Each structure stands twice: as structure tokens, then as C-alpha cells.
Amino acid sequence: MDGNIDQLSAIGSSLLGAEDGPAVTVVNPDGLSRTVLCCDHASNRIPASLGNLGLDRSVIEDHVGWDIGAEAIARHLSAELNAAAVICGYSRLVIDCNRPPGSPASIPEISDAIAIPGNEGLSPAEKRLREKEILEPYHQAIRDQITGRWQQASPPALVSIHTFTPALRETGVGRPWQICILWGHDGRIAQPLMDNLAQVDGLIVGDNVPYSGRNVAYTVNSHGFSNDLPHVGIEIRQDLVSTPEGAKKWAMILLDSLGPVLADPGLYQQRHF
Questions:
Q1: Which of 85, 120, 141, 147 lies in disulfide reach of 78, CB 3.0 to 4.6 Å?
Q2: Domains in the chain and their CATH numbers?
């Protein structure tokens, strides 16, 4: 292990130091689109105070540490749609911003059959510090972007960008889909988006796989569903987007189908489902 285990249980008044990056970045905050993009698992950064959570760097750089390619996709979409994109600055292994705080999955002790030493036996104060300095600023930034657009005009939409590994270690089962759409009760974006993607030759589209938008959707449920706003989660397979060229290619493939859905002015209204 290349992490500094001696640092793992340390707790101070601050988790993030001067050498660490921001908890959240908002790309194109003044974008004119009615859509807000978010990327929960954009980064594999670990605060220096946590000593790589006791993990080899290769683990952090693998899919358990982040959604490979997701930030690049979100940035391409932000530029093409002229939309704000809220980007989380830290690894899902530090705290998963797409899981309810306080839940076992929020700060995982095991991820895809890999033990996370730096997450074992944390005190309530240590867990709270991660929520306060990473999760809460990220979700506040999403809230601010939604509120700002709502105050200016009609209710906005929320699109969450993720990527998924071609196969989990613990199962070894391959995942054939290239793009997957996650949604719950509100299909205003999901259903026409899947219809459009189905017209793309050779594209295998997943509907609520490899995860279900009815179960694993803390961010879009907190900011979209709870406010009766149109929302959707989008997953793209990581082997397709692990290079800058691949991320751009698949962002454009997605945009060709997503853009017309988001261009419909009738989308931007509150509806309770």
C-alpha cells in the first residue's frame, strides 16, 4: 500500500488543506440553457490528509475511484448546450455524493470486492467532516444553479452524467450496453431520449441498467424528483470513453439524441409523478 495509514484516523478542524483542490467546480455557470448538468463521480482525487485511504494508486485510478471519462463528457455537453455543469472534486471513495449521507454506501468500506482501509471504523465526527466539506458544497452548488435558473424563467431540467465499468470484479458478468438511461417515475427526458437513441444504428441502449434510477439516484431525486423537475441519469460504458477522443465522440453521439429533447420548450415545467 502506498497510503499513509498513520494519517487515516486523524481528524482535525478541516479535511481539505491548502494543497487540495476545491470540493466542487461549476463549469459555464452563466450558461443560457435551461438544463443543469451534474457529475457526481467526476474525480478520483483524495484529500492529502487521508493518505490515499490506504489504497494503491492503481485502485484509485480504476473504476472504483471514479467514473472514468464522465467529467470530459459533462464538459463537452456543457459547451455544446451552453449549460452549467456542476462537477464534484473528490473521489466517490472519500464520500459518494450520489448516496444518502449516513447510509452504508455513502462512505463505503468495500467497493467491488476491494476493502477501503481508510473508511473502516470512522467516528461520527470523521464522517460528518466529509459530508460538510465535500458532499454539502457539491449539492449546494447544484441547488444554486437550479434556483438561479428557476428565478429567471421556467423550471429547469437536471441531467446527471455517469459512466460504468464493462464488468464488475465480483461478478465478472459483461455489460453489453454502450449507453444506459436511468429514470424513475418521470420519463419526460428518459423516454424520448431512449426513442432517439434507438434510431442509432448498432447502438445497444440500456433501460435502468446496470443500475436502476428507482434505486440509485440520490442526486437527481434530491434536486429533480423532489422538486417535480424533469430529470434523468445517463451512463456510458467506460471502455468507450477512457480517452479524450472517445469521451468527445460519445458526448456527441449522446448530444445528437439528447439535444432535441432538451430543445422542447414544453419540457420545462413542474409535473408531479
A1: 85
A2: 5-267 (3.40.630.40)
